[in-house]
Amino acid sequence: MNNRCLMAPRLHFMAFTLWCAVAATAGAEAWVPRHEGWVNDTANVLSEPDRRRLSDKLSHYHEETFHQLVVLIVPTLSGESIETFASRVANSWGVGYKGLNNGILVTLAMKEHGVRIELGKGLERYISDAKVKSIIESSMTPAFAKGDFAGGLERGLDQLMEEARRFVVKATDLPGGAVVH
């Protein structure tokens, strides 16, 4: 039998395997969930009424303050750190108004039991890292440990909204062309 015929399938298989490994690694690192609104639950953790209630709360808050608070719940981070993932998603989605950087992304990673509150630079003067840590530890994770994800999110969001109210944004502060809903 011709050795070339035996080598070709092996080389194609090896090349295909390498391509799959590279594609899987690149896809895992670059994955950004689709932004579908104020509450993005790709892990299907929240009930529809809870999702709607939280979305309405965040929408009304945006109308009042022009701050953009967004929730993202994912099934897993696939090996990526929650800090890197949340920062990448917040930047990709454009949470907060350009120039004001007044967005907040709250990320829950279910498999890793991770919680991250990613603040826009404009809010970092008003909400300290210590305050973020306190909100997560005192309001969110105790409820999450009991399986009450909607309640933990609501309590954490209420505290974040209260803290962010110190950063006053008026409609005239919004960048040109910004759409206010």
Explain the overall architecture.
It is a single chain. The chain has a four-stranded mixed β-sheet with strand order 1-2-3-4, with helices on both faces. Helices cover 50% and strands 13% of the residues. It starts with a helix and ends in a 17-residue tail after the last helix. The chain has helices at 3-30, 48-65, 82-93, 129-145, 149-164; strands at residues 39-41, 68-74, 103-109, 114-119. With 181 residues, it is of the alpha/beta class. The chain is built from five helices and four strands. It folds into two domains: 1-30; 39-171, Diaminopimelate Epimerase, Chain A, domain 1, CATH 3.10.310.50.
For the record, the CATH architecture of the largest domain stands as Roll
Which H/E pattern describes the elements?
Answer: HEHEHEEHH
C-alpha Rg, in Å? 21 Å
Question: Any idea how many domains?
Answer: 2
Strand adjacency order, main sheet:
1-2-3-4
Unreliably modeled segments: 1-29
Class of secondary structure makeup = alpha/beta
The third-level CATH topology of the largest domain is Diaminopimelate Epimerase, Chain A, domain 1
CATH top-level class of the largest domain: Alpha Beta
Total of DSSP H or I helical runs spanning 4+ residues: 5
